[in-house]
Amino acid sequence: SDVIIRSTGLWTPPHSISNAQLVESYNAYAARWNAEHAGEIERGEREAKQPSSVEFIEKASGIRSRYAIDPDGILDTSRLRPKVEPRPDDALCLMAEAGVVAVKDALNRVGLDGGDVDGVICSATSMQRTYPCVAIEIQDAIGATGFGFDMSVACSSATFALQQAVNAIRCGQANRIVVVTPEITTPQLNYTDRDSHFIFGDVAVAVILERADWGNPGWKILSTRLKTQYSNNIRSNQGFLNRCEEPARDEDEMLFVQNGRRVFKEVCPMVAEMILQHMGDCGLTPDDMKRLWLHQANSNMNRVIAQKVFGREYADAEAPTILDEFANTAGAGSVVCFHRHNDDFETGEKGLICSFGAGYSVGSIFVERVAA
Ligand code: CO8
User: What was the ipTM of the complex prediction?
Assistant: First the structure.
């Protein structure tokens, strides 16, 4: 059978952090660090830390705030990371808890419950543990049948998982699959790094996919395409070998690092080219696109890509951003954007969900609104 997206759902942490709060905290940390290293700075042995700025962040990225699991721990200059309480093994883990809320939101919107699902894919940049899979914990918590597994492709985690779900339904291995992307990004951020302290936020998003021949309304998946090309310009060295490595790594190396300028320059043309190629191969043209739900890393980047794809100036509604509220939510971004900006579509109207990021990776999914 063909496949439709039946519904989507969202979880956000209850609190968010504004740029002003984040910059105030970083600047207090930087001033203290400079005072502590005043001698070395004076002797030219170290560089003083420059202050961060709200104006820079908004202009360079379009980000104004981000949801976070623990703003207090992040803003506390003696800590600069969220505080997470370990839970007993018989309690839902943090990622599963966030994921379950998003999944139930998606199910409730169309009057379904967990028992109607026969596959769960949990796909996110970082996984809370190695095993058992978070997806299997979510499968159990919602009462789904079938199978569950985890996967991870950084910023393309959701789109790559959507293709796996589409394939599984097309092959008859499942009838209704939930793809859930709980992106708990803030523990991976280096809040002592001015270049990246503002970039990410926490969120979870879920997508219910099912057989199109059941005849429900939703979004028909017209075509999916994935592409990867190796790059070290976005990297985290965190992994299961860390505790055995000798000499031990600096903790900073286990956090998110990127060469943002290079990423911008290399990824924009790669994405625009891939979208246009995929579009042409599907017999579609830019004029067929009512909306592009692009990956949410940077508003300037999205402007460059959308202009290349449309081949003209375009209105904000044709490629909306959610960066102001959510910041970059890694693999979840393009799907959160789709979730927030799709209720004005008429039957037959088409759009593109497209992720891009670390790897590099690009995931492109054309959808069409279908009625019952
Ligand atoms: N405040 C004030 N000034 C600053 C700040 C700051 N906070 N940060 C940097 N500056 C300074 C720089 O030091 C630089 O100064 P100088 O010119 O003296 O060297 C100047 O501002 C300009 O800096 P940049 O050239 O770096 O500024 P850009 O305009 O390039 O903007 C961005 C920086 C926003 C990082 C931009 O390059 C960008 O967004 N690039 C694209 C990045 C991207 O898309 N990355 C994808 C990442 S997401 C992803 O793949 C997911 C991975 C999984 C994540 C997991 C969760 C943690």
Answer: 0.93
